[in-house]
Design brief:
alpha/beta, Rossmann fold, Zinc Finger, Delta Prime, domain 3, post-AAA+ oligomerization domain-like, five-stranded parallel sheet, two-stranded parallel sheet, 21 helices, 7 strands, extended
Length: about 425
């Protein structure tokens, strides 16, 4: 989010995150891919040729700071609107004022909350260069910003701040903030601060300030326990790259496989509280829906896929509800790993038998030569037969009769077993 000197315009009465808001790109912590030396955005700013843009990234990663820095660096009129509290009227008022000035930058926070009418009101002004739009959003702009406006903006993706970045932010706060400099602050433990913040520098600084103020002493040793007591929040100290990460996702998967929705929701809560990536959780549920449920309940895959799409659009904290619904459904569903076993069995056969030739009657015959070589000869078009089925051979002769799919012992797959038995008779032993 920031580094270097304090932004001189920040009030000492403002919250710590505001007091430390950067005034230049050199003061920014993180986002080097956008604002580092030689980067596209930095070059554009230094040349004074900033395009209209959408800054897309999680909370507290520097979107507002970048907008402020652009305006400060270019020394141009700077208007700010919040999509939460502003409507078409406010947008039009800014545009009318901008017509009387040059180089106006309009910053709209939470631009994804603007409806189509509000976004359309911006379109003409952006198109004609009346304003340079900087929109900030935590949501995928492909879904939330209309295509006409999006096509006129560059999209820059901000990354969550990593542990190194967050430690740097805290060090800068302790070293540079005038109130903090009056105290002796030791960061003995930082795991709780980092985990609770979830890569959000603003949240981190707000919590750090809360802990320091609550201590009420000049000499402060910050520990995980002190942070958790101050925040009145019991957190799961959770290393997303360590052993616990793999242990908890394993417990989560095995709880759903074992049809225990209560355990599944508990382990889900552990991951959510630990700041686990929602896409990682949703991806694992999507895999389980096919691996462990499969055709026992094909709707499970549809729901898991819908959940994956939904959490990508929504993010924390609301996505916890979608994850919970999906986890409970998967855990409570009938189970079958027959499809999983089928493909692994088939892969094992392929590795063992090599590239067996495709039977002639199944081969494609796009040329006369191929037809003369009997490609496709004797193929029986299934729909020309009763029940849309012909009992012909579809496997290479060498592995004819091999059974890869053995329907699971559940109501839905038992029906599939009966259907396959009625078609194939004794061939596969269904």
């Amino acid at each position: 989010m920031f580094k270097g000197k304090l932004f001189s315009m920040a009030s000492t009465q403002a919250p710590l995150a505001e007091r430390l808001r950067p005034g230049s790109l050199d003061q920014l912590v993180g986002q080097d891919h956008l604002t580092g030396r030689g980067s596209i955005l930095r070059t554009a700013i230094e040349q004074g040729k900033t395009p209209s843009m959408i800054l897309w990234g999680p909370p507290g990663t520097g979107k507002t700071s970048i907008a402020n820095i652009i305006a400060h660096t270019l020394n141009v009129p700077f208007y700010t609107l919040s999509a939460i509290s502003s409507g078409v009227k406010e947008v039009r008022e800014v545009i009318e004022e901008a017509k009387q000035k040059e180089g106006v930058i309009l910053f709209i926070d939470e631009i994804h909350r603007f409806n189509k009418g509000q976004q359309d009101a911006l379109l003409g002004a952006v198109e004609k260069g009346i304003v340079t739009l900087i929109g900030a959003t935590t949501e995928n702009p492909s879904f939330e910003v209309n295509s006409a406006l999006l096509s006129r903006c560059q999209v820059y993706v901000l990354k969550p701040l990593n542990e190194k970045d967050l430690l740097q932010v805290m060090d800068m706060a302790i070293q540079n903030d005038p109130f903090f400099r009056e105290k002796q602050i030791e960061l003995k433990e930082t795991e709780a601060l980092i985990n609770i913040s979830g890569g959000d520098a603003r949240k981190l600084l707000n919590l750090l300030e809360l802990v320091v103020d609550a201590a009420g002493t000049k000499d402060i040793v910050i520990t995980d326990q002190l942070v958790m007591d101050t925040a009145q929040q019991r957190i799961a100290l959770y290393d997303k790259k360590g052993e616990q990460h793999y242990d908890i996702i394993s417990a989560f998967i095995k709880s759903m496989r074992g049809s225990d929705p209560n355990a599944a929701v508990y382990w889900l809560a552990r991951m959510i509280e630990g700041g686990e990536d929602v896409k990682f959780i949703a991806r694992r549920m999507l895999i389980l829906a096919s691996e462990d449920i499969g055709n026992a309940n094909p709707n499970a895959l549809l729901l898991a896929n819908a959940a994956f799409d939904a959490v990508n659009k929504i993010g924390y904290p609301e996505s916890r509800i979608i994850l919970s619904q999906c986890a409970i459904y998967l855990a409570s569903s009938a189970k079958s790993n027959a499809s999983y076993q089928a493909i692994d069995g088939a892969l094992g056969t392929v590795k063992r038998t090599g590239d067996l030739p495709v039977p002639l009657h199944l081969r494609n015959a796009p040329t006369r030569l191929m037809k003369n070589m009997d490609y496709g000869k004797g193929y029986q078009y299934s729909h020309s037969y009763e029940q849309n089925f012909s009992q012909q051979e579809y496997l290479p002769q060498e592995i004819s009769g091999n059974v890869f799919y053995d329907p699971g012992k559940n109501a839905r797959e038992e029906e599939m077993r009966k259907q396959l038995r009625s078609l194939w008779g004794k061939k596969y032993g269904y």
